TrEMBL record:
It comes from Pseudomonas typographi. The chain crosses the membrane at residues 20-46, 58-76, 122-140, 152-173, 188-209, 221-246, 258-283, 290-307, 313-333, 345-363, 393-412. Residues 20-432 form the Ammonium transporter AmtB-like domain. Keywords: Membrane, Transmembrane, Transmembrane helix. Its main location: membrane. This is Ammonium transporter.
């Protein structure tokens, strides 16, 4: 006879359920972001590569997500095992939080809150990271549009999701991560998401080389516009999920900075507004309406590290710089003849700007540690934001990301190959991989068939 499992009612009271649904909502926002990125890139490729672009991107996203869930969530959680001096912390974190770990194999009401308080929230948060890993791979795939081999994309996604995201998240994201505990500040994931994406995309696009026919702009503007609108809807959903809801105390950023849910939410939309104003001005100056769509995203990225540190008027002012950093990045890549007009310019420059601005605007703000730890290395808010630590974080993340991207890309080049053949690129990847001929070719073939 089986013994009934003990039920801990505190794990499933109303507050716990509401908090869990809050993070479910945020996780769905990240997943919507993956769909939005797929729509944007689908709008930018030639018709002959449309289906392959969507298939590669979505599958790459799920490969990265699944790879992260193997042990990635355990690696990220290891920082808390260190903070609470859990014996054999790393192996215990793996045992508890790998994909089939003890804490991901029980219902929340059957987990003792003395060991894992808010178990539902921790379980849901694993999906938050699952979706972010997928978003990371989907964005990186955009640097190889119309020329990267499927196998190369899938290997890259598996490595990024299974190794890079866990490692950089452990180093830079969370209130007791090694760099956060030294004063490094982040909010959405400027270091472990956008900076990683920007650096990796730069290396990937360089190793791939330019396309044989580089599009002058979106081939399907409506599809691309729909993707940008979906992304603007997704961003506020997942941004608010980056902080901690603490009953009776308020809302804290992921580094345990004291903040406010309302202010963070307002800051996101002020960043959209500032980016839209600058992007609109650039669009009319250059006669390129695309900047009206990408401007709000660039404004958001320019603020992504500091939403919990600034006031709405400050977010508006800082976000005005985003689109100008974007066009500067585009100009530099054109000069270097690197074919990545979108991912690297959007992700790298604005994310670096955001973390440096966080170090300037938020200098001296207390953070780090964990509530309930009164003193010692992991005492609550013992560390302080500083510009020097932010810059140190940039150098570390850029160096790690660039080295890993270069080594993996070179290995792929020497094995399965990184780029499709020139004949396949000219023919179109929809036809090569899916036997789907472009519409123009189908239209030309119909009269011949009728005549025959």
């Amino acid at each position: 006879m089986s013994v009934p499992l003990q039920v801990f009612s505190d794990q499933v009271d109303l507050h716990q359920q509401v908090t869990a649904f809050f993070y479910i909502f945020a996780s769905l926002g990240v997943f919507l972001g993956v769909i939005a990125v797929a729509l944007i890139d689908a709008g930018f490729v030639h018709r002959k590569n449309l289906m392959d672009t969507i298939v590669q991107k979505i599958l790459s996203a799920f490969i990265a997500s699944g790879s992260f869930m193997l042990v990635g969530y355990a690696v990220w959680n290891y920082q808390y095992y260190q903070a609470f001096a859990v014996p054999n912390g790393f192996s215990q974190a793996l045992s508890d939080w790998w994909m089939a770990g003890a804490n991901l194999s029980k219902f929340a009401q059957n987990i003792d809150p003395a060991g894992v308080p808010e178990a539902d929230t921790f379980q849901v948060f694993s999906v938050f990271f699952f979706c972010f890993s997928g978003l990371t791979a989907a964005l990186i795939h955009g640097a190889g549009l119309e020329r990267i081999k499927p196998g190369a994309s899938f290997i890259t996604a598996a490595f990024v999701g299974g190794v890079m995201v866990p490692a950089l998240s452990y180093l830079t994201y969370g209130s007791v991560s090694p760099l956060t505990n030294a004063g490094l500040h982040d909010f959405v994931g400027a270091y472990c998401l956008y900076m990683l994406v920007g650096v990796w995309s730069l290396v990937l696009a360089w190793r791939l080389g330019p396309r044989l026919s580089i599009p002058a702009g979106p081939h399907n503007p409506l599809l691309a516009a729909g993707g940008f609108f979906a992304l603007l809807l997704a961003i506020p959903m997942f941004v608010i999920g980056c902080g901690f809801l603490t009953p009776g105390q308020g809302y804290f950023g992921p580094t345990m900075t004291t903040s406010g849910l309302g202010i963070v939410f307002a800051n996101v939309f002020m960043s959209f507004a500032g980016g839209a104003l600058s992007g609109g001005w650039i669009a009319y100056r250059k006669r390129k309406p695309l900047y009206i769509l990408s401007g709000p995203v660039a404004g958001y990225l320019a603020c992504t590290a500091l939403f919990d540190l600034v006031l709405p008027w400050q977010a508006l002012v800082i976000s005005l710089c985003g689109p100008f950093i974007l066009i500067g990045g585009e100009a530099l890549l054109r000069k270097l003849k690197i074919d990545d007009p979108k991912v690297t310019p959007l992700a790298l420059g604005p994310s670096v700007f955001s973390v440096l601005m966080a170090g300037w605007v938020g200098a001296g703000v207390p953070q780090g540690g964990f509530p309930g730890i009164a003193d010692g290395t992991y005492a609550f808010q013992h560390a302080h934001v500083s510009f020097a630590t932010q810059l140190e974080g940039v150098l570390i993340v850029v160096a790690i990301s660039a080295f890993a991207a270069l080594i993996l890309s070179l290995i792929i080049e020497k094995t399965v190959g990184l780029r499709v053949s020139a004949q396949a690129e000219q023919r179109g990847l929809d036809d090569v991989y899916w036997n789907m001929q472009p519409q123009a070719a189908n239209a030309a073939a119909k009269p011949q068939a009728t005549a025959a």
